[in-house]
Predict the 3D structure of the following.
Amino acid sequence: MNREEFKAKFNIVARSKEINDVVDIIMQVAKSDISVLLYGESGVGKEVFAKSIHGFSNRADKPLISVNCGAIPEGILESELFGHKKGSFTGAVETRKGYFELADGGTLFLDEIAETPLTTQVKLLRAIENKEFMRIGAETVTKVDVRIIAATNKDLQKEVAVKKFREDLYFRLKAVSLNIPPLRERKIDIEPLALHFMASYCKNLNIPFPKLTNEALEILINYPWPGNIRELKNTIESVLALNPGKTLTDEHFNHLIAQTENYETPRNLPVFTRKLPEDVDREILYRALFELKKDILELKEILLKQSDYFNSDNSSLEKTEEILDMIELEKSAILKALEKTHWNKRKAAKLLNISERTLYRKLKEYDIKIW
Ligand SMILES: Nc1ncnc2c1ncn2[C@@H]1O[C@H](COP(=O)(O)OP(=O)(O)O)[C@@H](O)[C@H]1O
Ligand SMILES: [Mg+2]
């Protein structure tokens, strides 16, 4: 299989030397069991490359199990990874296999590896090195044969320096490390990707392929795509959905221009001369959240005072409705933050001043789905 056939097989669209080089290395190392560490911002295609490594390996007919180490609550990550024996802790009503066992013979993709708590890192390293581990609560070891691919958007070396990531695990994971550059650093890929997403959207919906004007394309090329390919795909799909059958012109992408200016201002201006647009956004959000918190506290007080009457009149019902409104408010603050950060969960969490893990939990709680 040559490079172009490989790209076609795994749906990788790229014209840039950077990505073609990554593909060449992947083709060379896929068939071995060597660990691969993928670096890159959110949306650059880390998962796409992980899938292609697995798909091109001799393990392709065995499972590829993806684990997002940043999204699973700390307390249950270990039992998710290694499984547990029935009765080993409250709630362990049945013996359960962990991801390591589920991936046996195949590949384990550890996404957002930098978010793994240090205690779990120790066990992870041991499991990878010895190819065996113990289910939580078990007395015997379980043997597995898995190939590890890890991904992160953090500089792991820095995490090692500040003792947030174990050096031994870092060395174990980075046997081959590949950097997937952001889309704005390989603008040559924007056009083929845009056309690719247009084609697949139109094919899926069985609608004719529209024209894309040069001016529209120019906007797409100049926009810095902080959400990378994921954002490009979503932008194309929403413009297509809103303008069925129309030629896509610069007007359809004008909203990106305002964002382009916003994005580049902080880079070109010395930061101390004025407030960055992100800071203003953050301030507005903080204020909204602060108000929200105040409201909740007040509401709590009212509820406590009225608790005596709870069963005697219907005020409790009204209060419940107000609480539901609070939930809606929080939900909309989260959605706003996500929108502002182009659906970058890390940045959104920062903007909301909550941890990424809390954000994930809330997304799940409110059933907000992001791809
Ligand atoms: N080179 C590429 N060619 C085609 N689609 C891509 C490419 N890279 C990423 N994508 C698409 O962009 C989206 C985000 O990719 P993903 O692998 O999930 O990014 P990451 O894991 O780095 O956040 C997915 O829909 C994926 O299919
Ligand atoms: Mg991903």
